């Protein structure tokens, strides 16, 4: 008898003492539960499509890191003299994306992402970048508060970093 | 959690001490005010931590009367450098509180950590340091 079943029987036996059921009835009921479980476990419902796994709660934080990195790239391309100021900020976002991708097991777009495609949106202004950083800080802050302990410090650092970017753009 | 809160308290107390020293060497009015405001914020956080530790029935060791500075602070330049150093340290201490807290307590820790990272950035700006930011504020190097 597998342990799980033995456990159920013991539960039944305890209940028996105050409900007045006979041992036989308890054992029968337990047997029915085991049978139902077994049928389900045997793949009776295998026809049902596997539900798509829910995206990791940090996926939006990762998406924003990549979007911000390429927004900085476009700004630098449009105005080369911003390069010294903005390149370190873009690098921070790439560092975030790399760590998040490793953590959640997501694939990062290959190096081609660094070169914006032909249909890339217009280069953002510093004010627009600042606004995006503040919005991204909010996402990361909420993600940090919802995160399990082992993720809280990393996501907290990302939230704080985004805040400092917004401040650096002032 | 007690251990992390105690470390954060020690960092806040060190910051309060440091800002007293920093303020003396700053000359521009905006910087002097910045140091004074920062000291005030660190005092509020110290009080918050003392309260949190009291709730845990943990008594905090009294703050030391003096500190060994990481470098001599003799002028505006070294004073700004100390301000950056202190805020980086406070950011680190609060970051360690995140994994051991939840909900409102974690929100308070993240807010304190973000605030210190922002202060470090503005002191870097004042001192002309580049880059102004780091990818993972508070991560021990």
Q: What does the model show?
A:
The complex is a heterodimer of chains A (170) and B (141). Chain A has 170 residues and is an all-alpha fold. Chain A is built from 6 helices and no strands. In chain A, helix 5 packs antiparallel against helix 6 (149-168). The longest helix of chain A has 22 residues, at 83-104. The radius of gyration of chain A is 27 Å and the shape is globular. Chain B has 141 residues and is mainly α. Chain B is built from 4 helices and no strands. The two termini of chain B are 22 Å apart. The interface between A and B is medium-sized, with 27 and 29 residues.
Describe, in short, the structure shown.
The complex is a heterodimer of chains A (170) and B (141). Chain A has 170 residues and is mostly helical. Chain A contains six helices and no strands.
Question: Which properties best describe this structure?
Answer:
A: 170 residues; mainly alpha; disordered N terminus; B: 141 residues; 4 helices; globular
User: How many beta-strand elements of chain B?
Assistant: 0
Largest β sheet strand count, sense and barrel closure of chain A: none
Terminus-to-terminus distance of chain B: 22 Å
The ordered H/E elements of chain B are HHHH
Q: Given the C-alpha coordinates, what overall shape of chain A results?
A: globular
Roughly how much helix do the residues of chain A carry, as a percent range?
Answer: over 70%
Integer average pLDDT of chain B: 95
Oligomer: heterodimer
Q: Residue ranges of chain B: pLDDT <50 for 5 or more in a row? A: none
Describe the main β-sheet of chain B briefly: none
User: In which range does the helix fraction of chain B lie?
Assistant: 55-70%
Tally of helical runs of chain B = 4
> What's the order of the H and E elements of chain A?
HHHHHH
Q: Identify low-pLDDT runs of chain A.
A: 1-37
What is Rg of chain B? 15 Å
Q: What is the SS-derived class of chain B?
A: mainly alpha
- Helical element count of chain A? 6
Strand content of chain B: under 5%
User: What is the rounded Rg of chain A?
Assistant: 27 Å
């Amino acid at each position: 008898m597998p342990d799980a079943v033995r456990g159920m029987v013991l539960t039944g036996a305890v209940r028996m003492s105050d409900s007045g059921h006979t041992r036989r009835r308890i054992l029968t009921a337990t047997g029915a539960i085991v049978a139902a479980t077994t049928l389900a476990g045997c793949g009776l419902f295998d026809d049902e499509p596997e539900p798509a796994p829910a995206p990791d709660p940090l996926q939006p934080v990762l998406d924003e890191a990549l979007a911000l990195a390429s927004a900085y790239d476009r700004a630098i391309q449009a105005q080369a003299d911003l390069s010294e100021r903005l390149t370190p900020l873009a690098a921070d976002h790439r560092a975030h994306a790399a760590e998040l991708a490793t953590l959640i097991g997501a694939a990062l777009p290959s190096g081609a992402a660094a070169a914006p495609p032909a249909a890339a949106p217009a280069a953002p202004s510093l004010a627009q970048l600042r606004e995006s950083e503040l919005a991204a800080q909010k996402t990361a802050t909420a993600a940090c508060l919802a995160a399990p302990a082992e993720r809280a410090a990393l996501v907290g650092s990302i939230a704080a970093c985004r805040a400092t970017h917004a401040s650096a753009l002032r | 959690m007690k251990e992390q809160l105690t470390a954060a308290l020690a960092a806040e107390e060190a910051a309060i001490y440091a800002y007293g020293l920093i303020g003396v060497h700053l000359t521009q009015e905006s910087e002097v005010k910045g140091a004074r405001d920062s000291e005030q914020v660190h005092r509020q956080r110290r009080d918050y931590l003392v309260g949190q530790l009291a709730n845990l029935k943990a008594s905090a060791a009294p703050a030391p009367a003096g500190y060994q500075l990481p470098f001599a602070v003799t002028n505006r330049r070294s004073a700004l450098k100390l301000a950056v150093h202190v805020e980086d340290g406070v950011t680190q201490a609060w970051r360690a509180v995140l994994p051991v807290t939840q909900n409102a307590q974690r929100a308070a820790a993240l807010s304190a950590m973000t605030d210190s990272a922002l202060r470090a950035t503005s002191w870097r700006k004042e001192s002309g340091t580049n880059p102004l930011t780091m990818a993972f504020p508070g991560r021990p190097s």
